[in-house]
Amino acid sequence: MKRLNATQLQLIPTFADKENGTINMIVETPRNTRHKFAFEPKFGVFRLHQTIAEGLEWPYDFGFVPQTLGDDGDPLDVLFLCDEPTFSGCLVEARVLGLIRLEKNKVRNDRIVSAAMRMDGIAQSTDRFSKIDDLPKAQLESICRFLVEYSADQGNTIEYKGIDTRKKALRAIENGRDLFKKRKR
């Protein structure tokens, strides 16, 4: 079968504004759904990857940073904190807050934590967050618990390894971008 890719996601730059630490991300799974969607590069579409257990739903939009790769061979994962869900395939400019360190099946599988851009004249609950430590402790613990539990429900061995700063998250994005460039050659 001939490879088909109707999208050009591979052309979207990693950073929206590198100096300000804002990234581009592609939303795969919007918040408030039990479905997990995944981009299928072979066909250039989003496919239903799984449905999580009844009673659980995605607390925030979830997606990936274009032109990056993680240790697991997939683009870097991003959790996008925003007041309203977007949609699968939505290109979002996001402020990087930090990193949740996870190990999935003995392979590092971190999650970048980001927030909606601040907008003049529009108040959003995430406006007060500049770094991951700004999140209320209970909210951050809830996010970490969800990321571990939904993955464990899928039969993965997942370990929470801690939280890292915005600076380390941006370094991880740079490393992911370097790995992407190396693999592309």
Characterise the protein shown here.
This protein is of the alpha+beta class. The chain has a single domain, classed as Inorganic pyrophosphatase (Inorganic Pyrophosphatase, Alpha-Beta Complex). Helices cover 19% and strands 34% of the residues. The strands form two sheets. A five-stranded mixed β-barrel has the order 2-5-6-9-7. The longest helix is centred in the last third of the chain and has 19 residues.
Helix-strand layout with pairing:
Blueprint: E1 15-17, E2 22-29, E3 35-40, E4 45-51, E5 61-64, E6 77-81, E7 91-104, E8 107-108, E9 111-116, H1 137-153, E10 158-164, H2 166-184
Parallel strand pairs: 6-9
Antiparallel strand pairs: 1-2, 2-5, 2-7, 3-4, 5-6, 7-8, 7-9, 7-10
The parts where pLDDT drops under 50 for at least 5 residues are none
Query: How many β strands by DSSP?
Result: 10
Largest sheet entry: 5 strands, mixed, barrel
Q: What's the total helix number?
A: 2
Number of domains: 1
Structural class: alpha+beta
The oligomeric state is: single chain
CATH class: Alpha Beta
User: Please, what is the CATH homologous superfamily?
Assistant: Inorganic pyrophosphatase
Q: Which strands sit side by side, in order, in the main sheet? A: 2-5-6-9-7
Provide keyphrases for this structure.
185 residues; alpha+beta; Inorganic Pyrophosphatase; five-stranded mixed beta barrel; two-stranded antiparallel ribbon; 2 helices; 19% helix; 34% strand
